[in-house]
Amino acid sequence: LGVCAGPFGGGDPAAIGGDLEPLQRRLIAALMAEGGRMIEDGTLQQAGDLDALAVHGMGFHRWRGGPMAAAHAMGLLDLRADMQNWQAEDPVWAVPPILHQAMKYAEGFDAPELR
To answer: For the chain, which terminus, N or C, has the lower number of CB atoms within 10 Å?
Structure first.
């Protein structure tokens, strides 16, 4: 889902196989949640800021976007349900309020209402 370096050792995870899908899902969820917290506290202004940082600093593919775009591609409703289950394990997966907001709009995190 867009990561070509970093925790996946420089390879394209989609080419590695399905074994990484659960890990990818949790990683994207954690990054998206932290991005949401950063937007809430004013560190970032909008979701696209995190995606740009991820492309330039974390090895996400430019044409796929960063963690916010990847979360949207995964399906926000399903990702929220997963995160609600995972947050009992660790608060890193606590569902950020921006996810609830993004679910209201077809554009997800890119909706003008969230900028």
So the answer is: C
pTM of the model: 0.81
Largest CA distance in the chain: 37
Per-residue pLDDT of the chain (115 residues; tens, 9 = 90+): 555 555 444 555 555 556 788 999 999 999 999 999 999 999 999 999 999 999 999 999 888 899 999 999 999 999 999 999 999 999 999 999 999 999 999 999 999 888 7
